[in-house]
Write a structure and sequence with these properties.
This protein is α+β, with helices and mostly antiparallel strands. The chain has one domain: Peptide Deformylase (Alpha-Beta Complex), CATH 3.90.45. Helices cover about 20% and strands about 30% of the residues. It is built from 3 helices and 8 strands; from the N terminus they run ααβββββββαβ. The strands form 2 sheets. It has a 5-stranded antiparallel β-sheet with strand order 1-2-3-6-7, with helices on both faces. Strand 4 and strand 5 form a beta hairpin. The chain is globular, with a radius of gyration of 16 Å. Bound molecules: zinc ion (ZN).
Length: about 180
């Protein structure tokens, strides 16, 4: 069974001048409870998230609501870390940004749930995230650049916020057909 990534119809929202509040993508997600850690069910969710993300060639991260699960989980693709990085946390459960830089950077951004739109967002250039792993172990991780942008995009997903809610210069970009 292939897991579909939930889509939001940005053009319709724009036309009707209102957000689609009925979408799971617009809901505040629930925290993963202590008894859910290290269970088969959690493993299954993570597996489904991973296969949905990996099917998308340009996918760099995915939040649980994007596959219809309203829980505070996101995953990151290993390829966004530098090869030299010693530690590459890929699973972030119950994440919060505990520190953000004053410095803001404009960046191009898109979302697997808002295809095929891209826009410019203004993100903290570096952030520190605190989260739990599969076992429930707490960790914190500092990031800048693309990873910092991903952490902000994904934690917003878990609050029911999409990048199109604050991005500028949104444009439809149809990727070139690959040979
Ligand atoms: Zn997204």
């Amino acid at each position: 069974m292939t897991i579909k990534i939930v889509q939001i119809d940005y053009e319709k929202e724009k036309q009707e001048k209102k957000l689609d509040k009925s979408s799971i993508l617009r809901l505040e997600t629930k925290k993963v409870s202590p008894k859910e850690f290290a269970t088969k069910e959690l493993q299954e969710i993570l597996k489904n998230m991973e296969s949905a993300m990996n099917r998308e060639e340009d996918g760099v991260a995915l939040a649980a609501p994007q596959i219809g699960i309203s829980k505070k989980i996101f995953i990151v693709r290993e390829k966004v870390y530098s090869k030299e990085a010693k530690w590459k946390p890929l699973i972030f459960i119950n994440p919060t940004l505990i520190k953000v830089s004053k410095k803001i950077k404009a960046a191009e951004e898109g979302c697997l749930s808002v295809r095929p739109f891209y826009g410019i967002t203004f993100r903290h250039s570096s952030v520190t995230i605190e989260a739990q792993d599969f076992q429930g172990q707490k960790f914190s991780f500092g990031a800048s650049g693309l990873l910092a942008q991903i952490f902000q995009h994904e934690t917003e997903h878990l609050d029911g916020i999409l990048f199109i809610d604050h991005a500028e210069n949104l444009q439809k970009i149809i990727p070139n057909p690959k040979s």
